[in-house]
Design a protein that fits this description.
Shape: elongated
Helix content: 40-55%
Mean pLDDT: 90
CATH architecture of the largest domain: 3-Layer(aba) Sandwich
Largest sheet: 6 strands, parallel
Strand order of the largest sheet: 2-5-1-6-7-8
CATH class of the largest domain: Alpha Beta
Distance between the termini: 39 Å
Radius of gyration: 26 Å
Low-confidence stretches: 232-236, 239-245
């Protein structure tokens, strides 16, 4: 899917206005652009009409079904998690949103997806805006205020986007004063330097803002070039305006395949067959699905050969892993201990059969079997039977690599 996820440093920073301007500008370049606001709150009572959704579809001049453009709409102007609780509605499903986005992407070569509120707005009790953006796997554009305080909010947002494994392609500052303050004059340079992203537009305060007026303040051509550098499947439109998705991703796939053949030996793989075939190169995963470098999806029927019962990119597991990496990625247990190993051992002994009160950590199944054999032999040796060292096993049993 070719597109862009637009988020903000807060609510009411101008996400909808900027998204409308981008839709207008892309359409002027001849790009068939679709728009989406997956979750809209503050809708009109009774009709569930969202002013933001109306503005987006008007700017893009699309007539897609409203349930595709905005699958979830609520009357209360609150966070989606709160809105579903107030209405007694079922929790929001990211799969339902992704299905609607897929329909729009099949109609339009490029899709603009506007988020809601700031980056950490809760969608359910467990999911927030980052989970939505990651589920759609789109690069992210940040809309921020132009004035004092925006450096902190913008840098924090950029940091969280990167920590989620997504790519921030730039920032647009909105609401600059007619007589800019010292902070408004210096903020763009500071954000570019410390945030390591380009400021792609500085939108002034406008008495009567329109998509056309705002679009003049955004460097859309530079934005498209940034997308071309960060997305494997996106090629900036030529003068004719058409967005092409295949050539650049195929070239990247072929380059990676050539490097793989030169430098990697694959275990349990007949290399002559591997080198003669078009290889499967996994780029990312979603739940039980693997996605290759060309965007093709494969059901991960072997759980990546490891115990992966919860699927890939489970939010709770990913958060725990990242929290640990922020402290220490690895430390030895040779004459030392670590907090995670202590806490995990306690939890494992609580669910283990009675009498198993100790944990020995191993890095693979084959070494775990080897350790178990040594432990069994050592047990009998220390209990006066050192000659008891035969093991019952299946003929040609698999032990490990």
């Amino acid at each position: 899917m070719n597109g862009l996820f637009i988020t903000g440093t807060d609510t009411e920073v101008g996400k909808t206005a900027v998204t409308c301007a981008l839709a207008f500008a892309l359409r002027r370049k001849g790009v068939d652009v679709g728009v989406m606001k997956p979750i809209a709150t503050g809708c009109r009572k009774g009709s569930l009409i969202s002013e933001d959704v109306e503005a987006l579809t008007a700017a893009a001049q699309t007539r897609d079904p409203v349930d595709w453009v905005s699958p979830y709409r609520f009357v209360p102007p609150v966070a989606p998690w709160v809105a579903t609780g107030m209405n007694g509605a079922s929790p929001i499903s990211l799969d339902r949103i992704a299905e609607a986005a897929g329909r729009l992407a099949r109609r339009h070569p490029f899709l603009l997806v506007e988020g809601l509120g700031g980056w950490e707005v809760p969608i359910t009790g467990e999911l927030s805006v980052p989970d939505l953006a990651a589920h759609l796997n789109l690069p992210v554009l940040v809309v921020a205020r132009a004035g004092l305080g925006t450096i902190n909010h913008t840098l924090l947002t950029l940091k969280q986007i990167r920590q989620r494994g997504l790519t921030p392609i730039g920032v647009i500052l909105n609401g600059r004063s007619a007589q800019p303050s010292v902070s408004e004059r210096t903020n763009p340079e500071v954000i570019e330097r410390l945030g390591k992203v380009p400021v792609l537009g500085i939108v002034p305060q406008l008495r009567r803002p329109t998509p056309a007026l705002i679009a003049r303040k955004i460097d859309v051509s530079r934005l498209l070039r940034c997308l071309g550098r960060t997305s494997a499947s996106f090629e900036p439109p030529a003068d004719g305006g058409e967005v092409r998705a295949d050539r650049s991703s195929m070239e990247r796939h072929q380059k990676l395949a050539a490097i793989d053949r030169r430098h990697v030996w694959h275990p349990f793989t007949q290399m002559s067959e591997w080198e003669s075939a078009d290889p499967l190169i996994v780029e990312r995963a979603e739940g039980n699905w693997l996605v290759d470098t060309r965007g093709r999806r494969y059901l991960d029927g072997v759980s990546s050969l490891w115990v992966n019962v919860h699927g890939h990119r489970h939010p709770a597991l990913d958060r725990a892993l990242k929290a640990q990496v922020d402290r220490v990625a690895h430390s030895t247990l040779l004459g030392a201990a670590s907090i995670p190993s202590i806490e995990l051992a306690r939890e494992l002994t609580r669910i283990a059969p009675k009498g198993l009160t100790r944990v020995f950590y191993s890095d693979s199944g084959s070494t775990a079997v080897e350790v178990a054999l040594k432990m069994a032999y050592q047990y009998w040796a220390q209990n006066g039977q050192p000659r008891r060292k035969r093991f019952v096993h299946f003929t040609d049993a698999y032990h490990g690599d």
